[in-house]
């Protein structure tokens, strides 16, 4: 179907169903273009919880739509592509958390939002890349188990040296591709550019960056900056907002492989089908829902 026809159908269905469309910064350009709100995980989780619409089309990956459902159980939350998952989220299970709790009974579990609801339900508090440092720093326990992302965890550990932080071994397969040599090469090619990276990057990459932040924080930083050139160390979907908001600035992506295959699954066609057929509805088991809601609500309260 023609792009303009699809877009018009989406706007019409959205109106008819009084639906909200939100898109993560890694979505394809056309999907970001038709969304009501575009942002990072934290921003979108807040938007979904606060907005009045009863139907939410979440253009992102499964854990994001699941978190929206947990925060607003009465709403119909739709994920256009049901197999848009997150390999990082799948690197830890509820059983792993149970075992950690038995081994380290004095520790509190701070869980990155990139995780399944069953893991969130067994955690003390959730965090996103934009508030992980604040949550760990302010959580009232000096002994923390941070999971599942070892790179974000290691960034937090550096910022909060006063706490004893145990890391889990998970990582993002896309950010992991960026090596120290890529940063060195990009810096020599663009000596005037600032390096902005996501904290899911390896520690040796984060070490060389001028700014470390969530996708939204990277976009906000580049937009507020007086500098004109930036080397970007995260998924290339952020280029949509970076270029739109900063037509006079130059952006260089750190690695050609910065494409999250799962984030790229949602298309205009699947968004239209999501609205038309009200699919794919996200459901969470009642028992898991309660625990996960407590941990997510704690994040919103602290963050
Ligand atoms: P944000 O916190 O920037 O949304 O990052 C989420 C994510 O999954 C990064 O890979």
Automatic annotation (TrEMBL):
Chain sites annotated for binding iminosuccinate: 24, 41, 112-114, 129, 198-200, 215
Catalytic activity: iminosuccinate + dihydroxyacetone phosphate = quinolinate + phosphate + 2 H2O + H(+)
Cofactor entry: [4Fe-4S] cluster
This protein's GO CC annotations: cytosol
GO annotation, biological process: 'de novo' NAD+ biosynthetic process from L-aspartate
Biological pathway: Cofactor biosynthesis; NAD(+) biosynthesis; quinolinate from iminoaspartate: step 1/1
Subcellular location: Cytoplasm
Entry's family note: Belongs to the quinolinate synthase family. Type 2 subfamily.
The protein's name in its UniProt record: Quinolinate synthase
Lineage: Bacteria, Bacillati, Bacillota, Bacillota incertae sedis, Caldicellulosiruptorales
This protein's encoding gene: nadA
């Amino acid at each position: 179907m023609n792009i303009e026809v699809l877009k018009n159908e989406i706007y019409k269905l959205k109106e008819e169903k009084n639906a909200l469309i939100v898109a993560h910064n890694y979505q394809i350009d056309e999907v970001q273009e038709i969304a009501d709100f575009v942002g990072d995980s934290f921003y979108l989780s807040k938007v979904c919880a606060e907005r009045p619409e009863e139907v939410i089309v979440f253009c992102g990956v499964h854990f994001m739509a699941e978190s929206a459902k947990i925060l607003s159980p009465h709403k119909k939350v739709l994920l256009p592509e049901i197999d848009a998952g997150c390999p990082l989220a799948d690197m830890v299970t509820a059983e792993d958390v149970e075992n950690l709790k038995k081994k380290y009974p004095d520790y509190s579990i701070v869980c990155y939002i990139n995780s399944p609801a069953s893991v969130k339900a067994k955690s003390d508090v959730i965090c996103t890349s934009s508030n992980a440092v604040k949550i760990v720093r302010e959580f009232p326990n000096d002994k923390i188990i941070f999971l599942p992302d070892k790179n974000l965890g290691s960034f937090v550990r550096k910022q909060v040296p006063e706490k004893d932080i145990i890391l889990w071994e998970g990582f993002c397969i896309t950010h992991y591709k960026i090596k120290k040599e890529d940063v060195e090469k990009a810096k020599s090619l663009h000596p005037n550019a600032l390096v902005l990276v996501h904290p899911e990057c390896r520690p040796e990459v984060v070490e060389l960056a001028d700014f470390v932040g969530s996708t939204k924080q990277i976009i906000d930083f580049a937009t507020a900056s007086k500098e004109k050139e930036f080397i970007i160390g995260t998924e290339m979907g952020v280029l949509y907002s970076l270029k739109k908001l900063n037509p006079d600035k130059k952006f260089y992506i750190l690695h050609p492989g910065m494409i999250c295959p799962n984030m790229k699954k949602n298309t205009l066609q699947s968004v239209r089908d999501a609205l038309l057929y009200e699919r794919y509805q996200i459901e969470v088991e009642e028992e898991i829902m309660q625990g996960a809601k407590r941990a997510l609500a704690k994040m919103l309260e602290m963050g």
